[in-house]
Amino acid sequence: MSTKNLSPVLKTSFVLLAILVLLGIVMPDGYQVWSEQLREVISDKFGWFYLLLVTSIVLLCGFFLVSPVGQIKLGEPNSVPEHSTISWIAMIFSAGMGIGLVFYGAAEPLSHYAISTVRATPGSQEALADAFRYTFFHWGIHAWAVYALIALALAYFGFRKKEKYLLSVTLKPLFGKKTNGILGKIVDTITVVATVIGVATTLGFGAAQINGGLNYLFGIPNNALVQVIIIIITTILFTISALSGLGKGVKILSNTNLILAVGLLAITIIIGPTVQIFNTLTDSIGLYISNFFRMSFSAGSFGQYNRDWINTWTIFYWAWWISWSPFVGVFIARISKGRSIRQFLSIVLLAPTVLSFLWFSTFGTLSTHVQSLGNVDLTQFPSEQTLFATFSQLPFGFIASVVAIILIVTFFITSADSATYVLAMLSDDGNLKPKNDLKIFWGVLLATIAIVLLLSGGLVALQNTLIIVAFPFSLIMVLIMVSLVIELLHEKDKMGLSITPTRYPKKDQPFKSYEE
């Protein structure tokens, strides 16, 4: 890879990330303290901003879904989807959640129920109800709306307007040709850095849980060295997969993930407390819907909720989804050509949300049920071992644990595989078929950053860095929202779209407000 041909975005991103890595290597203790302090400042002083931003994104996506702009196709009028709906959903789900679902599936509801509750006494029925409604809240429509906004903006400007496949071009309705200069480079650099940190954090979670499962089942030491080895091995695997191309490696792995996930889910429902699982699902959906806006806007100012808890959980999740949105958004956009905006938003918002609700109802009910029986105290296990400790109380628990480890590995590879493709594309001037040497470069750098942050403070350092990096990108998201509204409403007026159309307009072309 010749340095002469490297884009300014790649060079600047590399320098910023290199500084981060050096800080973690030279003064790991200082880095952990510094990152913790900065994270607390952002969470405490700007938590309200995250709550308002993410809820506004949900409302905006809902508006696009039901408004006339939903008829607009992401591509030419005669374009058709490149992937079947099932494969499309599988790739969206694998890239967007993956490791996180397996890591937190049993652990998060248990934690909210028995350890750190939002308001109720730990172990009470009220705490149990709060545990599931807040888990649904953290992993539901809000998360997918954040992804959908970025994906919609990129797919709309990339496939509809024929612009470069870069996040900076989505701001053209606001800044015009300035996005081709330094402003655009800054936006794209922040996008790359946020993507790297977001994915590196998830790789750290994945390595920790794979190690936790191997330790619980086979007695393999649970330490940083083993986790580093896991990251190195999986890096080799996902780099090989990335080189095979989007239509092969990622698609095959995503379909495999969906099969394994559905299989593990079905086995657990059958051998677990089946009726209780579906009762929990039904009750929790009702609690989620009835408390939707209350949770969305609750910052804990009036004492009805624990403000520190909201900062630790809700604000962390909103920052996580924001930092992951460039990667997941770019990836979802890339595989969504030919879909209408209404079809796109319907699937991206609802399909993964329903799967997530079923997943947490199943594994969360299982872990809280085992805890309530009193035969084993699951709270004594670290989060990465909670799922395996829960499975140990079931028939065929060992087999389920092995399947879970395989699923984590495939999710790990899929997420990193997709990320290397996206990063290579963003640093290759939006090229939809980026160079292989760029994929290798980003694969190695992702692994290096995950290892350094892991060694400099474990998962805490990873989480702190994620929240810090998400903040500047959240400001970009505000601009993207405004830009997208301007352009979609402009095109709606030009095409003469209405809420109840009798036919699709004959005059269909990618009108550009910023070139008229």
Describe this structure in words.
By secondary structure, the protein is an all-alpha fold. It has a single domain, classed as Amino acid/polyamine transporter I. It has 19 helices and no strands. Helix 2 packs across helix 15. It is globular and about 70 Å long. The relative contact order is 0.20. The mean pLDDT is 85.
How are the secondary structure elements laid out?
Blueprint (H helix, E strand, L loop, with lengths): L7 H19 L1 H39 L18 H12 L2 H6 L2 H8 L10 H15 L1 H20 L11 H4 L6 H37 L5 H20 L2 H26 L2 H17 L1 H6 L9 H28 L6 H33 L9 H9 L5 H30 L9 H20 L2 H38 L21
Helix pairs in contact: 1-2, 1-9, 1-18, 2-7, 2-14, 2-15, 2-19, 3-11, 3-14, 5-6, 5-15, 6-12, 6-15, 7-14, 7-15, 9-10, 9-14, 9-16, 9-17, 9-18, 9-19, 10-11, 10-17, 10-18, 11-17, 12-15, 14-17, 14-19, 16-17, 17-18, 18-19
How helical, in percent, are the residues?
Answer: over 70%
The major pleated sheet works out as:
none
The value of Rg in angstroms is 22 Å
At the third CATH level, what is the topology name? Amino acid/polyamine transporter I
Order of helices and strands: HHHHHHHHHHHHHHHHHHH
Contiguous low-pLDDT stretches (5 residues minimum) are none
Q: For the record, what CATH class applies? A: Mainly Alpha
Tally the helices. Answer: 19
What's the pLDDT, averaged over the residues?
Answer: 85
Which shape, going by the Cα principal axes? globular
Total domain units:
1
Fraction in beta strands: under 5%
Kindly name the structural category: mainly alpha
The number of E-state strands comes to: 0
| CATH architecture classification name | Up-down Bundle
Distance between the termini: 40 Å
